[in-house]
Design a protein that fits this description.
The chain is mainly alpha-helical and 420 residues long. Helices cover 56% and strands 6% of the residues. A hairpin with a 4-residue loop joins strand 3 and strand 4. The structure holds zinc ion (2 copies). This is Palmitoyltransferase.
């Protein structure tokens, strides 16, 4: 039992660590134990280590690891992609070497059919154009989504590409291009996940899930068959004895046991990642946009976000009739917010005629029906633009997401993206 417990602890620890590394930075998990653990691992521990390094080696190790970290995270390279391919190829080799003789003919056919799928879908996802915005397709890209005047504003020019930024696009400093409906830069694929390749990215995730599920199931089956073969049948025994026998055979059958552990651990993470992206599609948003919504949520909690609906448009005298005093919040968050607020104010709460004309380019079924604004440090609600009936936003749900057409239509938009 001791061995099984040790193996279970190792599996749980590796899974937890990887989960924190992959998901800890997500805005939704920011104020949860996962987010705290992420910041502890990402910032606190390196800070301690750099102090020790400064004392022992004059900071040389820190400088080297920073350079390597920057290369891995912020430069375009195939290291992670090669690591993934090595993992899949190595795991497949170990499975065939260790478990092949315990498989039935039908199971062998399934394995032969399954082996090419992760390679094929990885190739499709990594090689597809994510939706790079170029001078020739820029005008078309501008027609795909309207500006919501909340997270995306017209007349923004990318400082690197020198092109108007379409709504939902983002400049990727690693790909060195603006990408339509950019979700995130994927280090596994060594490219961005955007408007044109999200469908291949999803297919890649789904086939990886199926591949890992098959690997977990068949290696589990083979371990049970080996136990039977070695005169240790598990049928009819109590659960505790079954787990003990399983643990003994798992360690004895090194290759099959390693595949079982590898496939099950990676499977949990892969499923979690897929569920997260399924949620994003269902909610009509992207990883990039969730960060923007998380900022709005923080500001709503501080009581500095105001909204005016189109149908409450009224004369100047009614402006900000139901607003009250602002609460105070931490200085650091205020500073960060201040720059965002000023940017919004520069745009104005109400789109200009020129901006309206830009919006007309889009044939998206939903248009913005609301005006949303933050107010700056030290300023009261009376500074909000006149001509609208402002009310304080209490919940993020009060702000509409015009990119959300409902789960099914959102999925269709991802699977059949408009051509660039
Ligand atoms: Zn750009
Ligand atoms: Zn990128």
């Amino acid at each position: 039992m001791g061995l099984v417990r040790q193996v279970a602890i190792i599996i749980a620890s590796i899974s937890l660590f990887t989960f924190i590394a992959l998901f800890g930075a997500l805005p939704r998990l920011r104020e949860t134990p996962i987010g705290w653990a992420y910041r502890f691992l990402r910032y606190t521990i390196p800070r301690w280590l750099s102090k020790v390094d400064l004392w022992l080696c004059g900071g040389r190790c820190t400088a080297m690891s920073k350079r390597f970290g920057h290369y891995v995270m912020y430069e375009r390279h195939p290291l992670i992609l090669v690591f993934y391919l090595t993992l899949i190829t190595g795991g497949t080799y170990m499975f065939i070497d260790g478990a092949w003789s315990y498989l039935t003919s039908f199971e062998r056919i399934i394995v032969i059919l399954a082996i090419p799928t992760p390679y094929l879908t990885l190739y499709l996802a990594a090689n597809a154009n994510p939706g790079i915005i170029t001078p020739s397709n820029n005008r078309t890209a501008l027609t795909h989504y309207p500006y919501d005047h909340i997270n995306f504003f017209p007349s923004h020019i990318c400082r690197t590409c020198h092109l108007p930024k379409p709504a939902r696009s983002k400049h990727c400093s690693i790909c060195r291009a603006c990408v339509g409906r950019q979700d995130h830069h994927c280090v596994w694929l060594n490219t961005c996940v955007g408007q044109l390749n999200t469908r291949w990215f999803l297919l890649f995730l789904i086939t990886t899930n199926l591949f890992l599920t098959l690997g977990t199931y068949l290696s589990f089956l083979c371990i049970c068959r080996v136990a039977e073969h070695q005169q240790m049948p598990m049928a009819g025994l109590d659960r505790k004895t079954q787990i003990t026998i399983f643990g003994i055979v798992l360690v004895d059958q090194t290759y099959t046991g390693a595949v079982f552990l590898l496939a099950s651990i990676c499977g949990v993470l892969s499923y979690a990642f897929t569920i997260y992206h399924a949620y994003l599609i269902w909610a009509g948003t992207t990883t990039n946009e969730t960060a923007k919504w998380a900022d709005w949520k923080d500001d709503i909690q501080d009581g500095i976000v105001f909204i005016a609906d189109m149908d409450t448009e009224s004369d100047a005298s009614s402006t900000s009739s139901n607003t009250d005093n602002l609460p105070t919040s931490s200085r650091s968050r205020r500073r960060k917010r201040s720059s965002r607020t000023k940017k919004n104010k520069a745009r104005g709460a109400r789109p200009s005629e020129e901006e309206d004309a830009t919006d007309e380019l889009s044939n998206w079924p939903r248009k913005s029906e609301q005006k949303v604004m933050r107010i700056d440090d030290g300023e009261g609600p009376e500074t909000l633009p006149r001509g609208w009936l402002w009310r304080r936003v209490e919940k993020l749900e009060e702000i509409e997401n015009i990119y959300d057409l409902g789960g099914w239509r959102n999925l269709l938009d991802v699977v059949f993206p408009k051509k660039l």
